[in-house]
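Justification of computing resources. Each target in the renewal requires a structure prediction run like the one illustrated here; the chain below, 234 residues long, is used simply to show the kind of job we budget for.
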Amino acid sequence: MSTAQPPLPADAAYYARFPRAPRVELPPGLPAAPRARFAVIVPYRDAPAQGRAGQLARFLAEVSPRVAAAGGETLIIEQSHDGRRFNRGRLLNLGVRLAAERGAGVVVLHDVDLLPDDPIFALYGRALPHPVHLAAHWPKYAHLDLFFGGVTSFTVEQFARINGYPNDFWGWGGEDEALYHRLVEAGLSVAVPAEGRFLELDHPLTQSVPEQVNAQRFEQLERRAPAGLGNGLA
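Resulting structure tokens:
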């Protein structure tokens, strides 16, 4: 009887090679930390084939009022149709710099197609000891544990400590894994919520659109430079 294992998917085979950040489970219920002044930062570019304009309209109608009622603000950081692929990491770096200039102490980095339920939203704006992977239980990527994306939360100091995202990931894929590597290299733990989920708005998967995919993402991750060498927030 053969004991051969099926080949790992490309992402999983890549992830299996690297160390993990310590994982901290947040207890259920409201966190003890009070809300700081905070900003929800949404990287955006209109993509008609994926219905992004409709997603943004729904996000602004359903999430932004909750953010404002909790004392935060929503920043939409938009990339023009400049002929280049979407650069989510660079947009988020710009958003964090803007939020810090406007006095935010906590930033929530947020994909436009994810809407939080009440237990998750209760964590928005909390200055917790560790960066929080708010979308850790997002079904689409729950099997990828070397991943820090979808919706995440940092204090501004934590984000500066890892020098934010690298700026050179153009197209879908790779920037969230690169951010995770920076967390590990900085010796930070990752906090995950015990409860709460997101509603994911329907759209065609970005990775199914070849012209939007970063086909070199694994090569970029292999040759990534340490976070302190200028490719990032600073």
